[in-house]
Amino acid sequence: ALKMASDSPESLMTLCTDFCLRNLEGTLCYLLDNETLRLHPDIFLPSEICDKLVNEYVELVKTDSIFEPHESFFTLFSDPRSTRLARVHLREQIVQDQDLEAIRKQDLVELYLTNCEKLTAKSLQTLVSFSHTLISLSLFGCCNIFYEEENPGGCEDDCLVNPTRQVLVKDFTFEGFSRLRFLNLGRLIEGVNVETLLRPLTSLAALDLSGIQLNDVGFLTQWKDSLVSLVLYNMDLSEEHIQVIAQLHKLRHLDISRDHLSSYYKFKLTRRVLNLFVENLVNLTSLDISGHTMLENCTIPNMEEKMGQTSIEPAKSSIAPFRGLKRPLQFLGLFETSLCRLTHIPAYKVSGDKNEEQVLNAIEAYTEHRPEITSRAINLLFDIARIERCSQLLRALQLVITALKCHKDDKNIQVTGSAALFYLTNSEYRTEQSIKLRRQVIQVVLNGMESYQEVTVQRNCCLTLCNFSIPEELEFQYRRVNELLLNILNQSRQDESIQRIAVHLCNALVCQVDNDHKEAVGKMGFVMTMLKLIQKKLADKTCDQVMEFSWSALWNITDETPDNCEMFLNYSGMKLFLECLKEFPEKQELHRNMLGLLGNVAEVRELRPQLMTSQFISVFSNLLESKADGIEVSYNACGVLSHIMFDGPEAWGICEPHREEVVKRMWAAIQSWDINSRRNINYRSFEPILRLLPQGISPVSQHWATWALYNLVSVYPDKYCPLLIKEGGIPLLKDMIKMASAQQETKEMAR
Q: In what residue span(s) does the Zer-1-like leucine-rich repeats region domain sit (predicted)?
């Protein structure tokens, strides 16, 4: 029943279903009185479409945080004349009594209710309306469905004193469910009499009683001629149970596995019991005995066991009782037993912990209903992916994604699953993964970050995101990933390692993206968050990666984005700049990042007056002589001053230092740089540089701009020559060569 993560393109049916669910009003429905969804009167949909709509809706509500559930969704399927339902799979808190009540007129053939804890005994009554058509029913983990609310007082005032009590319903049975063949009652609440409940069913084919403790299962023999599948996971067995099971001669699938950590079991599996099964259950194709302790040796002598090619032929079986099988089993569950490590196991598929194949089989078999087992199996996969190489990468990824989606609220699975994803998506496996699959990984990682503030999950998720090309691969979830990272960075108590990874990711996300993305992220509080981190580090007198990444992120997010530059100034960014400069005079990388950012601020004409103070101009002038990070700090300081000079002498509203003196220092700095310097900078556009060419008000700004272009196109011609041509730089340079005010060496360089 579980929907596996797939790697093939989506069908047209799936795409249309998804689109309609996300746009119900624009497609199938209209809003009545601005609140209730109603189906358009001319819409008639067969069960193939309606089933998919309902089942996909449940999936979306569960796994897509952006998708908004609709209060009245299930009422769209209340009239079988316009919408037909046949096979419905509902899960968890998404479903309430009134939802099931809404579809009671439908002729359901299959109804799976998995872990629907909000359903009460009202829904038992609704089930009766499906009794004449239902063939397959699961109430797995619906722990409140046999409880009804009893109001002892019955009067209004008394209700306040005595809130409703929950009372177990004892009189419900499957009377009248004449077609029911498949039934799952896993994790049924204690106190319900299973025998009485089931007695009216005449021909059960499959029964799941996982996690239910029954001392007497003699009643099962009433279906000995029809029962083909029986699951008694985590039932405490005894000799009586075994004798009853041996009489169910039609069984093809038997599962008596257990979670060996959950509680103490008296029962031990013996050679005699396995012999009994093999002799009596001649149709058996699938057997699960995971988690059992073997009381006596069921294996053949060691010498013989190791001989020959690995075989699945029963005659060569290393497990002695299975030598009596007529043919190999399709499936044999041996997870967390000693038997899975034997050489010859007579089954096509084995779950166990011996190798990757067995571990993947375990994850596949147990994910839906046994998260406690699945998390341990994923932990084994994590070790395989970390230490060896995964040979079935695609399958491993699909299984882990499916488990994480299915158990969004299970901490163990989120921790082990997110750790396994980190190793399964790293660069050595990169070529084997499609865009679709990698996107699914990103989705479940973000789900994990959203649901868990827990340090291990957050760290694993952030580390996994580092395996992707950023920003390209995260573009389709751009807003969401930024919101989640900023959320992590805004928490008052922070884990150092997570902080470092999150800042690194934030920086990468705003590097090389469109301005509208940067503006959107700026509005989310990005600038403020980075400045707070810088403030914190300053207070601790620490200049570490977090400090450097934060300045680098501010440099990236202010690139050609005036709104973000303004935010930087409004939130006392300049004050922090001066304090960092003073506190960390030797930190070259830091100086480069800070000046790169101020270069962006200086490009915005309206903000330049705020940089026009004696203190700032003196600092920029002094940094012209800096040898930090090659020429970068000096180059950026000169860039800031070039934009300020471009506003002309009348904008120079300070007495000290003099404009001419600063101009002189700028010329000296530019002449000291090596024209063939390799650069630590990345231009997406030359526009801010080119605007300094066609002007006579500040020849030194013109010279800085020409030097910058000359250096970039000569050191990186393949990247920057096309950019210069595309942005119309050639005619601007030609015109400048003719200008009387331009300096001779500037013209030489331009030529």
A: 196-337
Structure token pair of residue 96: 């309430």
DSSP characters over 91-130: EGGG--HHHHHHTTTS--SEEEEES-TT--HHHHHHHHTT
Q: Which residues of 209-238 are buried (b: 16+ CB within 10 A; e: fewer)?
A: bbbbebeebeebebbeeebbbbbbbbbebe
Strands 136-138 and 36-39, bridge-based pairing: unpaired
- 257/264 Cα distance (integer angstroms): 14
Q: In whole angstroms, give the CA distance from residue 443 to residue 302.
A: 48
Q: Which pair of tokens denotes residue 593?
A: 């990042």
Give 212-221 pLDDT, tens digit per residue. Answer: 999 999 999 9
**Cα 267 to chain centroid, rounded:** 41
CA distance 474 to 507: 13
* pLDDT for the residue numbered 325: 96
* Global pTM value: 0.88
Fold classified for 469-611: Leucine-rich Repeat Variant (1.25.10)
CA distance 360 to 402: 12
What's the distance, CA 239 to chain centroid?
A: 46
Question: C-alpha 193: how far from its chain's center?
Answer: 41
DSSP label of 73? G
Tell me the pLDDT tens digit for each residue of 95-134.
999 999 999 999 999 999 999 999 999 999 999 999 999 9
**Domain limits, the chain:** 24-148+171-194, 469-611, 617-750
The DSSP letter of residue 153 is S
- Distance, CA of 605 to CA of 427 (rounded, Å): 44
- At 453-488, the pLDDT tens digits run 788 999 999 999 999 999 899 999 999 999 999 999
> From CA 407, how far away is CA 113, in angstroms rounded?
15
Chain centroid to Cα 698, Å, comes to 53
Cβ–Cβ under 8 Å, residues 54 and 88: yes
Give 529-567 as a DSSP string: HHHHHHHHHHHTT---HHHHHHHHHHHHHTTT-HHHHHH
